[in-house]
Structures are given as C-alpha cells and as structure tokens.
C-alpha cells in the first residue's frame, strides 16, 4: 500500500525535479503525432460530409457515396482511438483505408469527376499525415 508521502522523491532537490519534469513534457510535446492525427480526423469528417456539396447522390453514385461514408467513419473511429491511446499498429489501418481511397476510382470506375478528385485528395492527405504521425 502506498501513500502520498511514500510516492514522493525527497532525495532530489525540488528545483532539479521541476527542471526534469519540464524537459520531459517538452520532449513529449515535440514528438507528439496529435497535429497529424487531427488533420486525418478532419479529412475523414470531410469525406463523410462531402457527399452533399459534391453531389454524389444527384449523380446516382450510391456506391461512391456509401464507400466514402464507410471509409470516413472507419478512419474517424480509428483516428480517435489513436488519439486516446497511441498505437502505432493502427496506423496501418488508416494507411490501408487511405490507399483504398486512391484506388477506389479505378476499381469502382468513377471516371474523371468531382468524386474522383475528392477521393484522391483526401486519400493523399490521409496517407501523408498517417506516415508523418507514425514517424513521430
């Protein structure tokens, strides 16, 4: 059983403990993948919301609409899990879904259209930011 007193370090002077804590926080802040994960999360939200302004449903492309919606929700969930509990292995899931966005126009044969440009742009952003977040 521990108490507050037993958890304290009385052998190191207080000014040295404070300096060590500040240096440790600075190191964690510099290597944080949070900004990149925030961009991936926002890109996934855009992927879900973009069906309205781009007009997937008006073009009768329900396969594109549902594909982007499912990928966007999946990436948002995985990214939230990565933000709350940093797990580098989940970067592969996000990279795979971003890769799917790059090849989906070929597989589903969108043709060159606004959904194609949207999927390529969001897929590239996801892959780049996922790579940068995994590296840091």
The dominant shape is elongated
**Which H/E pattern describes the elements?**
HHHHHH
**Count of DSSP H/I helices:** 6
Beta-strand segment tally: 0
Structural class: mainly alpha
Domain tally:
1
Range of strand content: under 5%
Features:
elongated; SPW; 6 helices; mainly alpha; transmembrane; 136 residues; transmembrane helix; single chain
Please describe what this structure looks like.
This is SPW repeat-containing integral membrane domain-containing protein. Keywords: Membrane, Transmembrane, Transmembrane helix. It holds the Pfam family SPW. The chain is mainly α. The protein has one domain. The protein is built from 6 helices and no strands. It has helices at residues 14-30, 34-49, 51-54, 62-84, 90-107, 114-135. Helix 4 (62-84) runs antiparallel to helix 5 (90-107). It is elongated, with a radius of gyration of 21 Å. The model has no long low-confidence stretch (mean pLDDT 82).
How is this structure best summarized?
The protein has 6 helices and no strands.
How do the strands and helices of this protein lay out in sequence?
Blueprint: H1 14-30, H2 34-49, H3 51-54, H4 62-84, H5 90-107, H6 114-135
Helix pairs in contact: 2-4, 2-6, 4-5, 5-6
Domain SPW repeat-containing integral membrane: 39-129
Transmembrane segments: 34-58, 64-83, 90-111
Keywords: Membrane, Transmembrane, Transmembrane helix
């Amino acid at each position: 059983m521990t108490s507050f007193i037993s958890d304290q370090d009385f052998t190191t002077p207080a000014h040295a403990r404070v300096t060590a804590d500040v240096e440790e926080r600075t190191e964690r802040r510099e290597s944080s993948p949070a900004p990149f994960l925030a961009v991936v999360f926002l890109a996934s939200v855009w992927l879900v919301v973009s069906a309205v302004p781009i007009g997937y449903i008006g073009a009768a492309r329900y396969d594109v609409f549902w594909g982007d919606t499912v990928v966007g929700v999946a990436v948002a969930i995985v990214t939230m899990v990565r933000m709350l509990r940093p797990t580098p292995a989940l970067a592969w899931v996000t990279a795979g879904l971003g890769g799917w966005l790059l090849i989906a126009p070929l597989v589903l044969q969108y043709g060159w259209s606004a959904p194609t440009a949207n999927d390529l742009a969001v897929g590239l952003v996801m892959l780049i930011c996922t790579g940068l977040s995994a590296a840091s």
